[in-house]
Amino acid sequence: MVASTAPPSAEGAELVPIEIQWEGIGALYKSYFSEQEGVTALSVALAPYIQGTVQLKVYFNQEEHLGKIRIQLPPGSLINLVPASPAVQLQQLAPITTALAAYRDHVASRFDLRVQSFHIGLDFFRGPVHCGIQVGGDRPPDGRLISPCVLVNGQEECGQPTPEGVVFQVEPSKKMARCLQD
Length: 182
Description:
This protein has 182 residues and is α+β, with helices and mostly antiparallel strands. It has helices spanning 27-34, 36-46, 94-110, 170-180; strands at residues 2-5, 18-23, 54-61, 66-73, 119-126, 129-135, 146-152, 155-158, 160-162, 165-167.
């Protein structure tokens, strides 16, 4: 199920439309995650980094008691982030993940503190390749630290952080470059 939320005009702020996709989320929690103040703040925070409609997926697995909030990034959606190089510049995604963490924290502080335990991350889909970017740090992560381990088609690939970015072995590096190409 998909809910489209076009944020109202915020004075002088750039906005990106946000489309929320739900899975395992009840009506009450849908209203929490759709609350206009939080969605507008997320839209404003993402505008310098993402163009086009933001696909926000919120889901909860009842059996595992695991919630996730993820942004799905189609090709062409990033603005001046993650240039192609031998070292993958994952840390450049931190402004997006910090905005996502702030959104999660807003919903948690305003409606239900249990939302604080929801995991956040980014998903890149490029043809047959899916890359899942996770955030690191103490729970609940604030989004500033991007994990050097990426799920590539469901397999965890870990790189070595360096000052130039995260360096992966040759094969995972090719897959990562494909995921992050716009």
